[in-house]
Amino acid sequence: MSDLAHYLRISNLLAGNLDIHSALSSVKTEIEKIIEFDHLDVCLIDTDKRWATAYEVGVETAWSKMRSNVHRAPIRDILLGKTDHLLTGNALQDQRFLFPGAVSAPIIDHELRSRVSVGMKVLGEVVGSLNCSSKKEDFYNQSHLEQIRILADMLAPYFYALRANEKANKEAIIRAEILAREEGLRLGALSLTDALEAERQRIGMDLHDQTLADLTRIARDLRPGLSEAQYLRLQQQVQNMIQGLRDIIDTSIPSILDLFGFHHAVQTHLERAISYDSVMQFKVDDQTDGAIDLLPETTRIAVFRICQEAINNAVLHSNASLVSVSVTKNPDDCLTIKISDNGNFQPHPRKPPSGLEHMKTRARLIGAKYELATSNGTQVTIQLHQATRQEGEKTNENIAG
Asked: Kinase: is it a keyword of this entry (predicted)?
């Protein structure tokens, strides 16, 4: 079969392929009938002109697993428009391919000695390069170069179109993800607004049922000629009322968090949540040297609120004997906060308790990953990556504004 027949078959095989790797794989066999190779790749320049992506068949190398800086690519002279081709009998000794900083490891690791590369152009502009390699030394010559030119001219417009389609699809997916995230945040903000309104109502009821009732009783009992016992009883009532107000304030404004930091605030909340006659034990273990206290204020308060809710669930509903809060950070700067107990709390499978929904909403609003596990006790885990910590803060600033 003549080369022309193979070129026609290549054109037919390209039709119907919607991604670059599938298209290249479909024509691999026909290209091998025109020019023998151990490795073939199409390297396309990204739209920013600074990076290039390789799609390969034959020997699998690291080139297709990463983007390469155009200035560090072994074929940079083609991608930068300095030449329209490169031909070498031994790339292992050719400084055009092995210059300082070049991404040449695949050439060395796979002993790709003979190489012929030709620029791929669309409307006169270099969009990439078609590269053919053999492990044999001095394998390619001028006739091979002309064959690669023809193939490059055939493949360039098709692969350029596929790349544009690929980029459009990725942008559509990104837009859809952004819209979904915005909708999730909007619903989360609405849910949190409802929760805050419920919290205001709870505070109002506490003030009405507790503080106002105490003040009314004290005002009724205040009269001239109180005995010492009556005076001491009123004094104790005032002290109890002051403590009750402090409890209401502490559940509304995390002042301890601001003054003494996350570790102390969680420790204090655990001490208050667990009654004095309880056998429940607790521990707080921060292995990050106070990393949470370095978070933006909105994010830090949200993390503390999630811990409060998880601790309250453990103390009130799980019949646990141990509650623990741990803070860790991995080498990727991901903060993990885990609230665990050894109780038997079981959320309703169809209607999650509002407290769990509030924790999930708070986590979503600060860009944190939220997980709930109820095997071997209950574990509430939130993870904050550096990027999501910053994004979460911006989101909350927008909501607050």
From this structure: yes
**CA 93/CA 204 separation, integer angstroms:** 81
Do the beta carbons of residue 73 and residue 58 sit within 8 Å? Answer: no
Q: At what angle do helices 262-273 and 297-317 cross, to 10 degrees?
A: 20
Q: How many Cα atoms sit within 13 Å of 8 on the Cβ side? A: 5
Residue 303's closest CA among 320, 314, 290, 289?
290
- The Cα 268–Cα 221 span in angstroms is 34
pLDDT at 94: 93
Model pTM above 0.85: no
Give, for 8, the enclosing helix (H) or strand (E): helix 3-14
* The one-letter amino acid at 58: G
What is the per-residue burial (b if ≥16 Cβ within 10 Å, else e) of 191-216?
Answer: bbeebeeeeeeeeeebeeebeeebee
Q: How many residues can be counted in the chain?
A: 401
Dist. CA 327–CA 293, nearest whole Å: 12
Which helix (H) or strand (E) is 105 found in, with range?
A: helix 105-109
Spatial strand order in the sheet of 378-384: 281-286, 322-329, 335-341, 378-384, 369-373
Q: Cα angle at 1 between 11 and 145, to 5 degrees?
A: 65
pLDDT tens digit string along 168-226? 666 666 677 677 666 766 666 666 666 666 666 666 666 666 676 677 777 777 777 77
Beta bridge partners of 371: 381
Assigned token pair, 158: 């098709």
User: Could you report the per-residue pLDDT of 18-55, keeping only the tens digit for each?
Assistant: 788 888 888 898 899 999 999 999 999 987 788 888 99
Q: How far is CA 265 from CA 21, 254, 275, 341, 357, in A?
A: 55, 8, 17, 19, 23
Percent of the chain with pLDDT over 90: 34
Secondary-structure breakdown of the chain: helix, strand, coil percentages, each rounded to the nearest 5: 55, 20, 25
| Type of residue numbered 70 | V
pLDDT at 400: 39
- What's the pLDDT score for residue 19? 80
